[in-house]
Structure formats: structure tokens, C-alpha cells
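sorry to bug you again but im stuck and you know this stuff better than me. what follows is a protein written twice so to speak, once as letters and once as C-alpha cells for the fold. id like you to explain what the C-alpha cell line says about the fold, in plain words if possible. anything you notice is useful, everything is just below.
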Amino acid sequence: MICAHCGATSDEGQRFCYNCGARLVEQPQVATAQPAGSLPVPPPVQPAGQYQMPGQYQMPAQYQQAPAGYAPQVIPNSNMAIASLVSGILAWVVVPFIAAIIAIVTGHMARSEIRQSGGRLSGDGMAVIGMILGYAQLALIALGACFMLFVIVAAS
């Protein structure tokens, strides 16, 4: 079947075009008259190893070009989410306390910015990971401070 929208060739029985997703309309079959006394032509035999289960989609032999003017939409990441992730990593590597605070603050700001963008920004996962790294680093610093206080009190 040939898609009326993009011109891609799809397998018979497909309801939607694999290339653009448009609904395929079946073309009316033109009856071809066979000469009297001739045998019907058998369907083509699939080569060994290429058996297709019923209902299973088979990729075409070659990919077709996208229609003119088609550009895939890429959703950019929030810069705050990237800053949160980088700060969360730096909190564990270089400057623990300051980078952890920055990771937490920028993570919350990024999640708010992503929610308010209405789908024009992505990166929520990066913001969450940055916040987790920041909170974990602050918890580790707090436990270390409590341990040091306990050691000082126990020693005196």
C-alpha cells in the first residue's frame, strides 16, 4: 500500500503508515482477467529464516526519505536541571557543602521551570538526580558532624 500523505510503501493489511503514521486507505482492487486455461500464479515464497508471524511488523528493505519540510522536534533540557546534576556530582568530588546546596536549590528551580513550561522543556530526571545527590551529601555531612560531636563529648 502506498501512503497518500508521504508516498511511503507499507505492507498490505497495515492500517497506518510506518513512516508518517497517517491512516492508510485501501485502494480498490482492480480485477485482472486471466486467460482461459491458465493456472493461477502462486504467492511468492519467503526465503528461509525470514518467516513472519501473523500480526508481526516487518521492516521494509530500505528506509524512505522523510517528506519535504519535515523536521523532528527536539525538546531542549532545562539549563537549571543540567546545573543541578553537575553541582550534585561536584558535591561528591570537589566542594561538598557548597555544591550540595547549589544542587538542591537549582534542582527545585529546574523542576518548577519544567512544570511551568507546558512541555517545552525536559530534564526533570536530571534535576531529581541532582537533588538526590545534594541531599545525600548534606545528610552525610550532618552524620559526620554528629559523629565528631559525639567523639568530642565522649573524649572529655
Remarks:
- The longest helix spans residues 124-155.
- The CA atoms of residues 34 and 41 lie 10 Å apart.
